[in-house]
Each structure stands twice: as structure tokens, then as C-alpha cells.
Amino acid sequence: MTKKIDPYAALRFREFNIFLLVRFAMVFAWSMQFIVIEWQVYTLTKDPLSLGIIGLMEVIPAVGMALFAGHIVDQKEKRNLLVRCILGFSVISFGLFLLSWPGLEDTWETKTILYGIYALVFLGGLVRAFLGPTIFSLIALIVPKKIYPNAATWSSSTWQLASVLGPALAGFSISFIGVHWSMCVIFGFSVLALITLFQIPRKPIMNPKIGEPVFQSLKEGLKFVFDTKAILGALTLDMIAVLFGGAVALLPVFAQDILHVGSEGFGILRAAPAVGASITMLGSTRFPLHKNAGKKLLWAVFGFGVCIIVFGMSTYFWLSVLALFVSGAVDGVSMIIRQTILQLKTPDNMRGRVASVNSMFVGSSNELGAFESGVTAKLMGTVTAVIFGGSMTILTVGLTALAWPSFRRLDLSKDIEDHEKE
C-alpha distances in angstroms, 212 versus 37, 218, 331, 358, 377? Predict the structure, then answer.
């Protein structure tokens, strides 16, 4: 007899619902802020390389601090650490609000404003180095182990929903209230997240090695990731795909110079991938993806590469939106499987360090992908750069499937059954 699946298992815990509200507000603010920054910078410079520099400014501190941040997260109480992360983001968003003040361009040089934006984005990278591992670790302290997969799906779905609404609102708010007041809205959401977070009490520290030397701690975390082939394979595959498939970084160019759809169309294009991913993730609460996870992940990344190529070749707005929508849907499959692998196979005392490695492999590859897209667009043209990125993604899938047969056979069913017995 098939066991009935409860698609709302994680939502039956009050603290988890509060956590989802905090995560929604933060991701909404962060994704909206990134879009507003992209628009402002490209408006100031009209140079696609400047969009790549935005990604580079965030990825340098995010990668440079990632492992150290993971060590700190494993050593500290998670709720208060998340409070500090949100406070840091609030300061940055308020700084961007001031830098976008109407009339500032008349009194300050464009380079001064641009460098100020880059500096705040750099500080945002420092905050993000701690934010991801803290959130990943906090989930495990809120819900029981047996519903980790369901909690991971709802958490990722919340992330995607915020990623839909954030960019969409950014596009429309730029058009109706301007960049400056859009940044004020972003600051308001960060304050909302901070107030809501205090409804979650402090949590115990699960790491028995408090005070462990930093380098010994980092070595242990890296060794665990590289010895656990399921985690290493998922992270590597997704990192390469995102690195070369970073077409979304060039969306301001497509919106303004190729498709000619303005800020409203830019918001729709930017939201399309997250809409597709949200539908996939909500569906996965009823139809789990843990069986034959390796094959499903490979096919998902392959489909992502195809969609990026179609988007790069398209000169029709509706086709571009459709390609991005489908890319988001298959990327949602990839995200769910990766998060499920991480939650099931990571011990509680290593969650901060493993999440930091994940941010280095996957999270930071978004910004490196943005930089790669900006550079290749400068060198070979925007359309050619996007097609090149999609082709490299497909090639990566083929090489992974051939070189790593054990990953093709990956199935998470037994891991889930083991957690349900605990």
C-alpha cells in the first residue's frame, strides 16, 4: 500500500510559517533591489560590462568570506545571527536609497555614483556570505528531520515566489515611482523581515566542537563535501550550468536594445523564470522528485541550456518570455533536488559549512555568470554570448553524464525512508 503524502507537513509548524514570511520578505527585497540596481547602472553607463561588474562586486566578498562564514554559523546561535544579516542588508538598502536621490546626478559625477553603488553591492556580498548558511541551518532547527524534504520544497517555493514578485514589482515601480522610491519600498520590506524574525525564539547550538580552530573546522567541512559524492556532483553540475547560463544578467540589454519593451517588459522578462520555477516547486509538494534524482537533475539542466539558446536567438517578446518561463520550470527541478540532497545528507553540526560551500559553488556562480555574460557580450555581442552560454551548459551535462555514471543512478528514496524512521 502506497503511503499517503502530506504536502503541507512543514506548514503545520507555526515557527516554520514565520520563517517563510521572513524569507519571503528578504528575498523579495533582495531580488527587487538587484533589478533596480541593474536598471540604474545600465541607464547611467549604457555598457553591458557594467552589469557584469555588479555581479563581480558581489561575488568577490561572497566567495572570499564563504568558508569563514560557514565556520561562524556553526559556532553561533542562528536566530540572532540572522537578525544581524538583515540589519546589514537594511543599512545597504538605505544607502542605495540615498544614492538614487533625484537630482544627485546634477551635483555628483556619474563615476562617483557608480562607484558608490558598487561599494554597497560589495558590502551586500559580505552579508550574503552569512545569510545563506544561516537560513539553511535555521530550517533544520525548526522542523523535524522526517519532513526536511517537504520543508526544503516549501522554503524553495517561497524563495521563487518572492523572486517572481520582486523583479515584477521592480519593473513596474521603476516606471511609476522611479528608482529612488523603489529603493524605499525595498528598505521597508527589510524592516518587515526584521520585526517578524523576533517571533522565532533563539535556538540551541548543535555543534559539539565550540571553539574549534578555524582551519581545522574548514578542513573538516570541505572534506565532508568532497567525500560525499551526491553533494559534490549536484553542486558541480549546477555551478557550471549557472555560470554559463547567466543570460538574465543581460536582460536590461535585451529589454532596452533588442526587444524594445521598456521597464515593464523588463520586469516581465525578469520574473518569467521564477514563475516557471514556482509552478514546478508547488507541484513537487504533491509529486516528489526524490526517485531517480540523478537522471532528473541531468535532464533538467539539459533543458535549461536549450531554453537559454532559444532565448538568445529570439527576437519576439512572447517567445523570449516563454523560453525564460520554461528555463525557470526546469531550474526549479534542479533546485529542489539539490536542496533535498543537502538537507538529507548533511549532519546538523556541519550545516553552516556545507551551506557555505554550496554558496561558493552555486550561489556565487550566479554573480560569476553575470560577469561572464557581461564580458562575453562585450567581446562577441549580446546574442552570441547568450547562445554560447547555453551551448556550454548542454556540453557540461553530456560530460557529467558520461564521466560520472554513479550520479546518473542517484536515488534519494532510501535516505527519506531512513529519516522517517528516526
Answer: 40, 10, 37, 22, 46
Report residue 146 as a C-alpha cell.
522526517
C-alpha cell at 247: 543570460
The CATH number given to whatever domain includes residue 161 is 1.20.1250.20
Looking at the structure, tell me whether residues 279 and 207 fall in a common domain: no
Residue 416 in contact with residue 149, Cβ under 8 Å?
Answer: yes
Band of pLDDT at residue 1, cut at 50, 70 and 90: very low
Q: What percent of the chain has pLDDT over 90?
A: 13
The answer to whether residue 32 scores a pLDDT higher than 70 is yes
Tell whether 1 is covered by a domain: no
Reduced to 3 states, what is the DSSP secondary structure of residue 202? coil
Q: Are residues 350 and 217 in the same domain?
A: yes
**Residue indicated by cell numbers 544561516:** 134
Same domain? 257 vs 176: no
Question: How distant, in Å, are the alpha carbons of 52, 292, 360 from that of 288?
Answer: 36, 11, 27
pLDDT digits (tens, 9 = 90+) for 128-165: 888 888 888 888 788 887 787 778 778 877 877 787 78
Instruction: Show the cell assigned to 368.
Output: 560569476
Domain range spanning residue 280? 213-421
C-alpha 235/C-alpha 225 separation (Å) is: 10
CA distances from 270 to 39, 54, 177, 252, 325 (A): 12, 16, 19, 9, 10
Collapsed DSSP state (helix, strand, coil) of residue 4: coil
Picking from 238, 236, 230, the residue whose alpha carbon sits closest to that of residue 333 is 238
Give yes or no for residue 106 having a pLDDT over 80. Answer: no
Residues 358 and 407 in one domain: yes
Using only the alpha carbons of the chain, give its radius of gyration.
Answer: 21
Q: Who contacts 369 (Cβ-Cβ below 8 Å, separation ≥6)?
A: 55, 242, 243, 244, 245, 246, 249, 389
